[in-house]
Amino acid sequence: MENALKLSALGSASLLFVAPIHEFEEVRRSKHVGERSVFPFVCMWASSTLWLIYGLFIGDIVPTVVTNLLGLACSCYYCAVYAWAVEPASRKSSTYNLFAATFLGICVVVTFCLGTFSPRPESWVSMQDADSTDSGGDERAQRFLGIAASAATAIQYGAPLAELVKVIRRRSTEGMSLALAVVSLVCSTLWMSYGVMLVNAFIYVPNVLGVCFSVTQFHFHVEP
Which protein family is it in (predicted)? Predict the structure, then answer.
């Protein structure tokens, strides 16, 4: 049961990452982003990057690193297409500013985590017994990265709701992807179930929020 749920959750995460590809192929062909916001895809980029680093840090190549490597590749493609197609110049400039701020934020989180929580170099403890080397730094770093990645995931699920005011005012869901809402709902539900089964708050807390956010998005697509 656990393995089946885990595989289903991983498969749904992969679908979540690739779901917008058709939409962005249309953007690439038309060179027009319409009312779409790049924010959800920047959040996907940040979330995938943090989970990828977390997976590398704990040595979990499969499934964490592999899954989020796909997410990183897809989100970079979406962001690149959006930046290429978005007009006017003022909107393009704000897009680049968002990219820069996100990249800086990721760098700050990783640098702070590794620089503050990593265990001391061996040269610092050369006079001590090897068995006494503090491994708490690794655990704290893993926990900090887990919290940061979980927060990024929660924001990723909720990011499309940034367009909610426009949806209500214009009674149009053009800026919110239906495919992304449906896949997000499936993905967050499966990961929430898996997290509850493991009693792992890093997994189930952001995905409980993901279920709520996805249901809200889906509601506005059904009854805009």
Answer: Belongs to the SWEET sugar transporter family.
